[in-house]
Amino acid sequence: MKRFLFLFFSLASLIASAQEILTLKQSYKLAETNYPLAKQSDIIQKKTSSEISILDKGKLPQLDLNAQASYQSDVIQFAGQIPNINMETPNKDQYRATLDANQLIYNGGHINAQKELKTAQSETQLQQIEVNLYTLKSRINQSFFSVLLLQEQASLLQSKKELLHLRLKEIESGIKYGAILPSAQQVLKAEVLKIEQQISEAEFDRQKAVDNLSSLLAQKISTNTILKKPNIFINDDSASNRPEFALFNLQENQLEVSKNAISKSRYPKLSGFTQLGYGNPGLNMLDNSFQDFYIVGLKLNWNIFDWGKTKKEKQVIEFSKEIVSTEKETFKLNNDIELQNFKNDIDKYREMLEKDDGIIAMYEEVVKASVTQLNNGVISSSEYITELNKLYEAKINQQLHEIQLGLVKANYRVTKGDFN
Fold first, then answer.
1. What is the band of 373 on the pLDDT scale with cuts at 50, 70, 90?
2. Is the pLDDT of residue 378 over 90?
3. What does UniProt give as the signal peptide span (predicted)?
4. CB 171 within 8 A of CB 374
5. For residue 402, what are the CA distances in angstroms to 38, 130, 145, 355?
6. Which of 260, 242, 259 is nearest to 327 (CA)?
7. d(CA 86, CA 82)
8. φ/ψ bin of 366: left (φ > 0), alpha (ψ from -120 to 50), beta (otherwise)
9. Mean pLDDT, the chain, as a whole number?
10. DSSP 2-66
11. What average pLDDT score do residues 240-268 get?
C-alpha cells in the first residue's frame, strides 16, 4: 500500500511539472516585460539623463582657444612727428593668440526651466509607452480566451468520446444475445471516429491560437501549458483608471512647463568673461613687439523687445492645452459608452447561462432515458446519438457563453483601467 501511494504521488508530481499553468495576469506581465516596445522606457530614461547633463554643462565655464595671423593693406599713419615722442608705425603683419573664458552668472533660471521641460517630456513619453502597452491587454484577452475556449471544447469532446466507449461496452452483451443489432455498434464506432476528428481539429486550432498568444507575449508557450480560467470580479463603483487619463494630465503639465521655459528665456543673462592673450601688437597698438595682455569684465544681455513673439508662443501653448482637454473629454465619453456596452453584454451572458443550466438538465434526462432504451433495443444507436449530440451541443453552448462572459468581463476591466 505504501509503495502504491509512493508511486501515485510521484506520478502526480511528474504530471504537474509537465503541465505549466498560465493565468491572464501572468500573460499581461509577460507582455509588459517582453514586448519590444517595453525596451523603450529604459532608453528614454537614459536619453533624458544625458540631455539634462548637457544642460548642466551650460553652468560651467566655457573656454575657447583662438589664434590668428593676418596681413593688412594699411595701418595707422602719423602725419608729423611730435617733439620728444618716438612713435613707430604699426606693422602690417599682426599675430594674436587668446584664451577666452566665459562664466554664466545669472540667466533667470532658464537652464533649470529647460531641465524641467526635459523631465516633463520624458514623463509624457514614458506614459505614452505605458498606454501603448496597456492597449495590448485587449488583444491578449481575445487570444487568451480563444485558447481557453478551444481547450475547454477539446476536454468536452474527450468526455463525450469516453461516454461513447462506455456505451459500446454496454451494448456488446445486447448484440451477443441478439437484443441489439450489430449495426448499432458500427454507428457508435463511427461516431467515436468523428469525435476523434473533431478533437484533432480543436487541437490544431488551439495550437494556432497559442502561437498567436505567444507572439503577443513575445515568449514561446509550451504545448503542455494549460490556461487557467480567470475568476474576474466586476466593481461598478470604482472610477475609470485608464492610463490615458494620466497621459492627458502629463501632456497638460508639459505644456505648462513649456510656457514657463518661454518666460524664462526673456530674462536678462549676466556673465563674466576673461581674456588672456599674447600677440604683436598687444593692447598697445603703438608698440610693435610681442606682448602678453588680459581683459576681464561683465556682460549683460537682455532682449527687452521681441515684437510680441513670447506672447504669441504662450498663446499657441494655451490652444494646445485646449486641444488636449477636448481629447480628454472625448476619450472619457467613448470610454463610458464602451463600458456601458460591456455591462449590457455581461447581463446578457449571465441570463443565457442561467437558461443553459435548465436546458442541459432537461437534455440529461432525455439522454438518461435513451440509454435504457438503447440497451433494450427500443431505439437505434442513431437516435441515441441524436439525443447525445443535443446534450453536448447544449454543453458547448454553455462553455461558449462562459468564455464569452469571461472575455467581456476582462475587456470591461481593461476598458475601466482595473488591470494595471
1. confident
2. no
3. 1-18
4. yes
5. 33, 30, 10, 12
6. 242
7. 8
8. alpha
9. 87
10. HHHHHHHHHHHHHHHHHS-EE-HHHHHHHHHHHSGGGGHHHHHHHHHHHHHHHHHHTTSPEEEEE
11. 93
Number of neighbouring beta carbons within 10 Å of residue 280: 16
CA distance readout (Å), 58 to 102, 109, 203: 10, 12, 64
pLDDT band at residue 334, thresholds of 50, 70 and 90? Answer: very high
How far apart CA 269 and CA 109 sit, in angstroms, is 10
Length of the chain: 420
The residues pairing with 143 across neighbouring beta strands, listed in sequence order, are: none
Cα separation of 137 and 38, whole Å? Answer: 14
What is the pLDDT averaged over residues 7-19?
44
| Phi-psi sector, 76: left (phi>0), alpha (psi -120 to 50), beta | beta
Cβ contact 110:267 at 8 Å? yes
Distance, first Cα to last Cα, the chain: 50
Cell digits of residue 178: 441478439
pLDDT surpassing 60 at residue 9: no
**Cell 438503447 -> residue:** 374
Place of cell 533667470: 108
How many angstroms separate the CA atoms of 414 and 335, rounded? Answer: 11
How many of the other CB atoms lie within 10 Å of CB of 85? 8
User: 0.70 exceeded by the pTM?
Assistant: yes
CA distance 282 to 105: 29
The C-alpha cell at 334 is 467613448
Cβ–Cβ under 8 Å, residues 102 and 215? no
Residue in the block written with cell 498606454? 131
pLDDT given at position 126: 95
What residue type is 357 in one-letter code? D
Q: What is the mean pLDDT of residues 310-326?
A: 94
The half-sphere exposure of 161 on its side-chain side, counting CA atoms within 13 A, is 16
Burial class (CB in 10 A: 0-12, 13-18, 19+), 168: middle
The predicted structure's pLDDT at residue 322: 96
What are the cell numbers at 166? Answer: 462506455
